[in-house]
């Protein structure tokens, strides 16, 4: 039978279903009967839900970001070929 | 016509084919920017990481042996660049090896049934932001790669040059730290309501 410490240490693996099935069953049984460990599990689950919800939108590169990257790489190409740096305007 | 593979573009880039390297930039710039933004958490720093990543890739492409895929290699450069930037900005933190997890549950308040509308408020989003910022940089990396980018433990281990066991350990501790910070927020935000309801 698992102790509370063993359950707490394995909560992430349990959330990710990254453990043997028999151990999953044991953790599930423990959480079902231990209100403190259940609160630990439920709040950890909710934390991940919140975090994923906040980051669900795809990020978009700012306007001009691509052009600035191309410029930086062009300057690096010139530098690697030994060309003098362009005059700053 | 089948698309040119990354491996082919890498081979051509090694032969100074600048169009091939440009194609690799086009394929990965959005992904690199996205990963950088989620790690450094502000657009200016993310753009610096993006530029630094592709500069390093351009300088190092000839020594890229192909032991990993190009995507793993470019994400590894991104993660390292982001880590250096985070370390410069972060206040000294305790060693990441100093575990502060509890060994037994201590009767924590279960705020998980909180109504959805409260979970979406800006104050909570700010608290979440602060919770993640306060993580040691090495924890933030694992947290972002696993829980946001949804990479496997093995992929994260390869990108960060860690063992799978180390990835799992850092992930677990990062999740707990964020959760504990949110628990503090919910216990504070519950107080005024209790007072208003005459509960002491």
TrEMBL record, chain A:
Putative zinc-finger domain segment(s): 4-38
InterPro entries xrefs: Znf_put
Name of protein: Anti-sigma factor
Pfam families per UniProt: zf-HC2
TrEMBL record, chain B:
Gene3D superfamilies, per database record: 1.10.1740.10, Winged helix-like DNA-binding domain superfamily/Winged helix DNA-binding domain (1.10.10.10)
Domain called RNA polymerase sigma factor 70 region 4 type: residue spans: 127-177
Superkingdom, taxonomy of origin: Bacteria
Signal peptide (UniProt feature, chain positions): none
Gene Ontology biological-process annotations: DNA-templated transcription initiation
InterPro entries tied to this protein: RNA_pol_sigma-70-like, RNA_pol_sigma-70_dom, RNA_pol_sigma70_ECF_CS, RNA_pol_sigma70_r2, RNA_pol_sigma70_r4_t2, RNA_pol_sigma_r2, RNA_pol_sigma_r3/r4-like, WH-like_DNA-bd_sf
Single GO molecular function: sigma factor activity
The keyword Transcription belongs to this UniProt entry's keyword annotation: yes
Keywords annotated in UniProt: DNA-binding, Sigma factor, Transcription, Transcription regulation
Protein family according to the UniProt entry: Belongs to the sigma-70 factor family. ECF subfamily.
Protein name (record): RNA polymerase sigma factor
Naturally occurring in which organism (per UniProt): Eiseniibacteriota bacterium
């Amino acid at each position: 039978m698992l102790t509370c410490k063993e359950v707490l240490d394995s909560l992430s693996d349990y959330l990710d279903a990254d453990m043997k099935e028999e151990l999953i069953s044991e953790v599930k049984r423990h959480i079902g009967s231990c209100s403190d460990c259940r609160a630990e599990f439920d709040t950890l689950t909710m934390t991940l839900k919140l975090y994923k919800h906040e980051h669900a939108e795809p990020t978009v590169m700012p306007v001009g970001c691509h052009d600035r990257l191309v410029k930086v790489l062009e300057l690096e190409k010139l530098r690697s070929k030994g060309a003098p740096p362009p005059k700053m305007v | 016509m089948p698309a040119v593979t990354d491996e082919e573009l890498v081979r051509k880039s090694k032969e100074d084919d600048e169009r091939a390297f440009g194609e690799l930039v086009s394929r990965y710039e959005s992904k690199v920017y996205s990963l950088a933004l989620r790690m450094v958490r502000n657009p200016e720093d993310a753009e610096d990481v993006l530029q630094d990543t592709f500069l390093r890739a351009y300088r190092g492409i000839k020594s890229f042996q192909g032991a990993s895929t190009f995507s793993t290699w470019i994400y590894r450069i991104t993660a390292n660049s982001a880590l250096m930037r985070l370390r410069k900005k972060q206040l000294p933190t305790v060693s990441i090896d100093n575990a502060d997890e509890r060994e037994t549950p201590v009767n924590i308040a279960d705020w998980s049934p909180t109504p959805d509308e409260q979970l979406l408020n800006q104050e909570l989003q700010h608290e979440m932001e602060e919770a993640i910022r306060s993580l040691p940089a090495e924890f933030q990396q694992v947290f972002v790669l696993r829980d946001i980018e949804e990479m496997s433990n093995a992929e994260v281990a390869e990108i960060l040059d860690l063992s799978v066991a180390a990835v799992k350990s850092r992930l677990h501790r990062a999740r707990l730290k964020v959760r504990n910070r949110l628990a503090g927020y919910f216990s504070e935000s519950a107080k005024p309501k209790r007072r208003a309801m005459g509960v002491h």
